[in-house]
Specification:
The chain has helices spanning 19-25, 77-93, 108-115, 151-159, 194-198, 210-218, 249-259, 267-290, 307-316, 330-346, 363-368, 387-396, 418-421, 428-442, 492-504, 533-548, 559-569, 575-581, and strands at 3-6, 9-12, 49-52, 59-60, 71-73, 132-133, 139-142, 166-168, 175-177, 204-206, 223-228, 263-266, 301-302, 353-359, 383-386, 462-468, 483-490, 511-515. The protein has 591 residues and is an alpha/beta fold. It folds into 4 domains: 3-75, Roll (Ubiquitin-like (UB roll)); 88-206, Alpha-Beta Plaits, CATH 3.30.70.20; 219-269 and 331-403, Rossmann fold, CATH 3.40.50; 273-326 and 416-532 and 539-581, 3-Layer(aba) Sandwich (Fe-only Hydrogenase (Larger Subunit), Chain L, domain 3), CATH 3.40.950.10. Helix 8 crosses helix 10 and helix 8 (267-290) crosses helix 14. The longest helix is centred in the middle third of the chain and has 24 residues, at 267-290.
């Protein structure tokens, strides 16, 4: 535990910590642009320069390890001057168009320039060449706004293990993008949007579909309904200056009604439906393996509700596609149910119903346009907005969000349980599934305190748990004494670790949850920026509060889902369920 001083204040930190780590412990702010939590520092932007006594030149705080007795100074005249010069040079070649930029008032470079007192750019240099990449359904790239910070490269390569983006060229000609400057659609990109979530400027963002929603709402012949993912309620408030983890479920519902949606529903409804379908699918596979001794049964079964994870499996591990649950994601299940069951209830032609999703995820935009997602005869989901886009839409409507009263979502597709809420968190789908599967096979209450399976909670990259099944109902006696082993991974590099352990025989599981984004959906690529672990933890805690405040906390208790089966679907994994709620995926060539 070396001791050092920063601005003459002593601090003790673990060996291997950096100056930036030590400054954070003292709540001292050192500005950064290229630094990304959880990634190896690259020191590319030079904004975090500090002075160290005895060193000839300033050093980068993000990459310099501390040493015993080190004396650091973060705010000397020379350091302020150096940082200001670095940012001025960045601004000189940054084609920001701040007045109309998507990131205006949400731009780290803009804020940093203000913090450093920069009121003009003294170097009127040549701007970077502009190249728009609009080749994918989810993401848009603008090379003229790129400041070469390399955050996108770090998150794509180190956190997600995909590696779609690289630095190319040298010096002023450096270009960040797919190999050989190809469009993003021509390389293996899972569309997760983590690059857009951590980009400090407007170089990468989601494809904006707000105007498409306004057009639908303005069409008198369209009945426009909206579904909201569970992660939205713990993050949308940040768009209106609320701290991370502020629950805004009721205000969000009122805002959506005021915008003009004909019905305001909840993706949680089909999250509950997913648990019944997925849980039944898991039990069916286990029965085939244990009773029928069918060695061809694809176990472990992997969850299938994260479209970025599906894209990753198709490209990187096509050999496990049979192990994926056949369940569509809750977003897509909702669209299928809305355009069949709900359309019949309200007497509308499905072609006249527009389903809008509010999602924390850019990959949901990609998922909605997949050819597999139209089993009802029409597209399941028509338009997908991110949390950030909904925040913009509320502002465009002139709504004072923070003063709105709370209201309830509409029935029947707005009724849900606490188990659906926790889909937002890493480990949440697993916990929700275990709550229901355990009670189905035992007829007894789920035994975990407060219903939480704590071993699968939190931000550890890979988590494991097991539940021993005893005292089962007669029809499930084949599972008597079986210890159901489960694993949870979030962030695709962690998913790779789990898959490799399974393939090598090092680990054996029955059920595996994978969420594409760090922290799960609460850390999705479409959430308000900037998402670090403190923000993730605050949102996770809020989602658990939402769950614990519910009267119903298990998916099989949802009365609206029970009615859906009684009136329409008949039974989990039945003929109608298979048609509308299940699908299969195919291997993709990796490029």
């Amino acid at each position: 535990m070396p001791k050092l001083t920063i601005n003459n204040i002593e601090v003790e930190v673990p060996a291997g910590a950096t100056i930036l780590d030590a400054a954070k412990k003292l709540d001292m702010k050192i500005p950064t642009l290229c630094y990304l939590e959880g990634c190896k520092p690259v020191g590319a932007c030079r904004v975090c320069l500090v002075e160290v006594k005895g060193f000839k030149d300033p050093v980068t705080a993000c990459s310099m390890p501390v040493s015993e007795g080190m004396h650091v100074f973060t705010n000397t005249r020379e350091i302020r001057k150096a940082r200001k010069s670095v940012v001025e040079l960045l601004l000189s070649e940054h084609d920001g168009d701040c007045q109309v930029c998507d990131r205006n008032n949400d731009c780290e470079l803009q804020k940093l320039a203000g913090d450093l007192g920069i009121t003009r750019v003294p170097y009127p240099g040549e701007k970077a060449k502009r190249h728009f990449d609009v080749s994918t359904p989810a993401l848009v790239r603008d090379s003229a706004k790129c400041i070469n910070c390399r955050r996108c490269i770090q998150v794509c390569g180190q956190i997600q293990g995909v590696g779609s983006l690289f630095p190319q060229g040298r010096g002023y000609e450096t270009y960040i993008g797919p190999a050989f400057c190809h469009p993003l659609s021509e390389v293996t990109c899972v569309q997760c949007g983590q690059c857009a979530a951590i980009c400090p400027v407007g170089a990468i963002s989601e494809r904006d579909q707000v105007e498409e929603v306004w057009e639908a709402l303005d069409d008198p012949d369209k009945f426009v309904i909206v579904q909201t993912a569970p992660a939205i309620r713990a993050a949308l408030g940040e768009c209106f200056d609320n701290p991370p983890g502020t629950l805004v479920t009721g205000k969000m519902t009122t805002a959506l009604r005021n915008i003009g949606f004909d019905a305001v529903f909840d993706t949680n409804f089909t999250a509950d439906l997913t648990i019944l379908e997925e849980g039944t699918e898991l039990l069916t596979r286990l029965k085939k393996a244990l009773v029928d001794k069918d060695r061809k049964v694809a176990l472990p079964m992997f969850t299938s509700c994260s479209p970025g994870w599906i894209n990753y499996a198709e490209s990187f591990y096509p050999e496990i596609l049979d192990n994926l649950s056949t369940c569509k994601s809750p977003q897509q299940m909702f669209g299928a149910v809305a355009k069949t069951y709900y359309a019949q209830k309200i007497g509308k032609d499905p072609k006249d119903i527009v389903v809008v999703s509010i999602m924390p995820c850019t990959a949901k935009k990609f998922e909605a346009q997949r050819p597999e997602m139209a089993a009802s005869g029409v597209t399941d989901v028509d338009i997908v907005l991110t949390t950030r886009e909904l925040g913009k839409m509320i502002k465009q409507a002139g709504i004072d969000f923070n003063s709105l009263p709370d209201s309830e979502m509409d029935a029947p597709l707005g009724i849900s349980t606490g188990a659906a809420d926790i889909f937002a968190n890493t480990g949440g789908v697993m916990e929700a599934a275990l709550r229901t599967v355990y009670e189905i096979v035992t007829g007894k209450d789920f035994p975990f305190p407060k219903l939480h399976v704590t071993p699968v909670a939190g931000l550890e990259g890979v988590k494991e748990a097991s539940v021993k099944l005893t005292g089962l109902l007669p029809e499930w006696s084949f599972l008597e004494g079986v210890e159901v082993k489960v694993a949870v991974a979030h962030g695709l590099s962690n998913a790779k670790k789990v898959i490799e352990k399974i393939k090598s025989g090092e680990a054996e599981y029955h059920f595996v949850e994978v969420m594409c984004c760090p922290g799960g959906c609460i850390g999705g690529g479409g959430q308000p920026r900037f998402t670090d672990n403190n923000t993730r933890l605050a949102r996770i805690e809020a989602i658990y509060r939402e769950d614990e405040g519910r009267k119903l906390r298990k998916s099989h208790q949802n009365p609206a889902v029970q009615e859906l089966y009684k009136e329409f679907l008949k039974e989990p994994l039945g003929k109608m369920s298979h048609k509308l709620l299940h699908t299969h995926y195919k291997a993709k060539e990796r490029v």
